[in-house]
Amino acid sequence: MGQGSNNDSIKIMIEEMNNIPKEDDGTLAFLNIPRDENSRSFNCDETTQSKLVNTTFWVVDFIEEVPTRFSKSKGTKGQTLVKIKMTKDALESDAKKFFTGSTDILYVLKKIKELNKFPRKVTLRSNGNRYYFE
Predict the structure, then answer these.
(1) Which contacts (CB < 8 Å, 24+ apart) does range 3-11 have?
(2) pTM score, two decimals?
(3) How far apart are CA 109 and CA 98, in angstroms?
(4) pLDDT of residue 41
(5) How many C-beta atoms surround the C-beta of residue 23 within 10 A?
(6) Closest-CA residue to 83 (of 129, 52, 126, 38)
(7) What is the pLDDT of residue 118?
């Protein structure tokens, strides 16, 4: 066996380890197209913040000013859409999202983003109609 075939075997092993197809298999994954930061959404199940009160979870990401029927009735630009996982290592398919109009939660989310510290473990609390993270 010559040196060339040994190098080819190593290359194939590395490609398999990295899960990179060596030729175009027709899938979108092969194209490795980056996410459009101007058009964001979360493709996961939706829950409500009231169902999450007194629950600890990991905040993964958020989108500001998402138009909803609630924001339109209040005359605001939109609500904050928050993406969460129940455990830090949970699969993307297990992620959930919820809408909030809480300025307290939005303030904390912006600070976490500013510090580049996502994901972050929080507990959702409420006091009457006021929702906040601890």
Answers:
(1) none
(2) 0.69
(3) 13
(4) 79
(5) 6
(6) 52
(7) 95
The two structure tokens encoding residue 90: 């949970």
| Amino acid 42: pLDDT | 86
**Local structure of 46: helix, strand or coil:** strand
Mean pLDDT per 10-residue section of the chain, whose length is 134 residues: 59 58 77 68 91 97 84 72 96 93 96 96 95 97
Which of 1, 116, 123, 2 minimizes the C-alpha distance to 61?
116
Q: Which amino acid is at 44?
A: C
Question: Which residues, including other chains, have CB under 8 Å from residue 101's CB and lie 6 or more apart?
Answer: 70, 71, 74, 76, 79, 80
Burial of 61 (0-12, 13-18, 19+ CB in 10 A): middle
Tokens of 17: 């380890």
Write the DSSP string, 74-120. Answer: HT-S-EEEEEEESSTT--GGG-EEEEE--HHHHHHHHHHHHTT--SE
Q: What is the pLDDT of residue 55?
A: 97
Strand 96-100 and strand 79-85: the pairing is antiparallel
